[in-house]
Every structure is written in C-alpha cells, then in structure tokens.
Amino acid sequence: MVHATKVGLVRVLGPAHVWALGVGIVLVGEYMGWNFAVGKGGAYAALIACWFAGLLYSCVAMIDSEVTSTVAAAGGQYTQAKHIVGPLMAFNVGLYLVFAYTMLEAANALTVGFLMETVAAMAGHEGLNPQPFIVLSILFLAWLNYRGVLATLNFSLVITAVAFVAILILFLGTAPWSDATPLRHAELMTDLPYGWLGVLAAMHFGLWYYLGIEGTCQAAEEVRSPARSLPFGTLAGIMTLVIAATLTWYVCVGLMPWEYLGQSGVPLFDAARMTGSTALLVLLGVGTLFATLASANGCINDASRAWFSMGRDHYLPAWFGAVHPVYRTPYRSIIFLVPIALVFALGAPLDQVVTFSILSGLLGYTFMPFNMIMFRRKWPLGSIKRGYVHPMHPVPAIVLILLCAVTFFAVFLGYGTQLIAMVVFYIVASLWFHLRRYRYVKRADQFTMPWPKPQGY
Questions:
Q1: pLDDT tens digits for 363-421?
Q2: Which of 254, 275, 293, 429 is most buried, by CB atoms within 10 Å?
Q3: 381: which strand partners?
Q4: Could you tell me the CATH number of the domain that includes residue 105?
Q5: 169 within some domain
Q6: What is the pLDDT of residues 165-208, one digit of tens each?
Q7: Which residues contact 399 (CB under 8 A, 6 or more apart)?
Q8: Which residues form the domain of 420?
Q9: Alpha helix positions (H), 148-277
C-alpha cells in the first residue's frame, strides 16, 4: 500500500504555466477592484497608483525571480524565509500567503455572483440570488485542483489568455484613433478631486492591479526547469499586467464618470455596456467570468501549496503535509481551505475582502527586501548557483520597502481598523507558534538546500 505522506509533487509545468499562474491570479484585478482607487482620488490618482504599484511589483518580480529560481521548492516565500531568515518569519510569511490568496479567492467568487446577478437583471430577471454561483465556483475549482496541477494550470492558461485578449479587443473596439470613438476623456476627466491626499489614498487599491503575481513561486516544486521557467514566467507576467492595467484604465475613464466608476462592481463589463456594442458586451462578460475563475483557480493552488509546505515542515499539524497517492496534489490542504473561503465570500462585502487580501500581501512584500539583502549577504554571487540574478541590487529592495511604507499609510487612511486588527491577529499567531507549536518543528530538517554554510556562520 502506498502511503500518501510519502508521495512527492510531480514536475510537469513549463514557463507558460508559470505565466498563466501569475497572470491568471492577477488579471481579475483589471476586471474588478482596481476602480475603488478612482473613488479614493479620481481618475488621475488611479493612474498614478497603477504605475507606482507597477514599480512596486516589478521589484517584487525581480527579487522573487532570483530567490525562487534558487530555492525551488513548494511554499514560495515561506520556503525562502525558512532558509534565509528563520522559523518565526517563515511561519508568518506562510500565513500571509494563505490569507492573501484565500481572501482573493473569496473576492473572485463574490465577483462571479455579482456578474451573474447583473446579467440576470439585464435579461429582466431581477432579484437573482448570487450565493449558489459563489458556492459552486469555489467547489468546482477546488475539485479541479484536487484532481491534478497540470489540468488545473492548463485550464488557467486557456481562460487567462481569453480574458487578456478581451481587454485588447475592447481597447481596439473603442477605436481611440477615430473621430467616431465613444471615448470622452476631455469631457469626463477632472483634476484631482481630493488633491494629492487622494493620490496617496488611491495607492491602497492600486495594488489590486497586480496582487498575486508573486504566486508564481508556489509552483517551484512542480516546474520542470525552475532556473529558466520561474524567472521567464514571472517577468513576462508583470509586463503583461502593466500593459493590461494601463489599457483598462484608459478605456474605463474614457467611458464612465469617475464618481460612478469608483464604485462599480464590474468596471470592464460596464465599459463594454457603454460602448453600445453587443459583441463587446458578450466578450467582456465572458472575459470577466474567465478572469475571476482563473484567479480563484490560481489562489486555491497557491494557498494550498503554502499550507501544505507548513504542514510538511510541522509548522502546522503534519496531517496537512500529505500528497494524494494518485493525483499527486496536496489534497488535504485544498479541502481544508474551502470552508474558510466560503465564509468570507458569503459573509463579507467585496471591499472588505479585497482589503484583507491586500493587507496580507503587503505584509509579505515588506518581508521581501530584508530577505533579499540577507540572501545576498549570506550567499554572495558566485557562492551558489542562481537561475537568475536581478540587476541593480540593492535598489529594488530599497524602492520596494519605501513603496510598502507609503502603501501602509494609504491603507491606514481608509481602513485603519482593519489594518490594526490584521496586525494584532498576526502577533497573536506568532505568540502561539513560539509558545506552543515550535516544539514540534524538527530543527535539523529545516535546511534542505545543498548550499555551503552562509558567510559569518
């Protein structure tokens, strides 16, 4: 009899799957959520937040590409922290990842429900209950992840490509080079309605354009050639997202007043409605559905890998570290996280769920600069083999920590209570790990990479 806990994950993924995982998780940020930045500071503030957040995530992508192509194991940033910083930081980073992805999964399910409700209302069926669609979308994607990673990410690859092409077609469909274009930037664009403070506040939701690109790291143990596939897929992903985010902003602010756009549930779908084209309306409806499903699909994949890795290392009960003997997936971790996603999807408003995801992600980004600096100091260039070396070190790390500090302040302006509650939660979890759980961690098994001793030890 084969014991599930003795079966490892299987290496079947290529660079296209890494791209699909990163972009698939994030592209939904172009279809919903980013527009709350417009409500915080106006259209121009949202564009500034888009590009500053793009700079932040470019630093994240460069740092992740170097470290993860070297520490090629499931768990991504959690495994990096375990090797480079220490157990307590690794435990916290693991929690950051799980909560960021699980909250993002819940936000995606909420968007699916809202989209179905909107389409039904357009067809004359008012009052459709969105909750069955929320539950079914999470259960279907959990089942897909349970059955195998290759089928899961092939599915994401196809629907992510369709959702990205839909944005390009919407842009081309508005014919911005033509006098007949429906875009009315000159009439709809205003100055900063809340001044530069509004720009700062918009940084909060500016992260939503790109939140989750770091999820490419979670596939490290299932990629055929981590040194090539992880950097290529991650860096190609961030370039794809910057293009999609800029086109999304341009089309939406040219079709809708900022007061309406700032509270829309499905802004790209609403933009397609404003064009008056039935074909674009159908395409962007499909694109919105595909983007949310691709994102939720990737979130289940990433959250379960982080939870599985923590169980395998005894940071959590070892029961979670099991691999399915047939499908080669962390099936117990996948199943365990489903009810948590359902609770938030069925019981919390969209902007609150988005904020919880952003806060957990932001805490993880704050860890990365220190992780990168320690990594280069402990194992300088030439001491170990790296799949990718990011340029201009330590400039990306410094830029990243400064942008994280600005964004924390931006979140505090609008969601200070949630920020304090989240920090308190992680402090309590850290105390639990230190006082109760750490006794079960096998210290001798923590360091699994075939590296020389770090400098200074």
A1: 999 999 999 999 999 999 989 888 889 888 999 999 999 999 999 998 888 888 988 99
A2: 293
A3: 384
A4: 1.20.1740.10
A5: yes
A6: 999 999 999 999 998 899 999 899 888 998 988 999 898 888 88
A7: 55, 56, 59
A8: 17-445
A9: 149-173, 185-188, 195-206, 226-255, 258-261, 267-275
Residue 13's DSSP bridge partners are: 223
Q: Dig out the tokens for 297 from the structure.
A: 């699909």
**pLDDT above 90 (res 43):** yes
CB–CB of 73/220 below 8 Å? yes
Query: Burial of 124 by CB count in 10 Å (0-12 exposed, 13-18 middle, 19+ buried)?
Result: exposed
The pair of three-digit structure tokens given for residue 235, joined into one six-digit string: 């860096």
User: Is 4 within a domain?
Assistant: no
Classify residue 438: in a domain, yes or no.
Answer: yes
Residue 253 CB contacts under 8 Å (≥ 6 apart), including other chains: 38, 43, 46, 47, 185, 188, 189, 261
Please state the domain count of the chain.
1
- Partners of 384 in the β-ladder: 381
Rounded to whole angstroms, how far apart are CA atoms 78 and 252? Answer: 37
And the tokens for 156? 């994401």
